[in-house]
Amino acid sequence: MNETIRCLKQYCDASFESDYGKNRYFPEVTLIKGAESGCYFAVERLFNNFSSLKHTLSKYPSDVEAEKSMYEISGIPTPNMFNANVYSTYLCSLIEEYFRTTYIALLKYSDRKEKILNVKFSPYDMVDISNGEKTVQEVFASTLSFQNIQKICSNFHALDNKLDIGQALKKPYHNRKKNLYEQVNDILERRHGLIHRLEIDDSYCTESLQKDIQDVIVAIRRVYSYLCKYYNWEEQEVSL
Question: Staple partner for 63: which of 21, 38, 41, 80, CB 3.0–4.6 Å?
Answer without folding.
Answer: 80
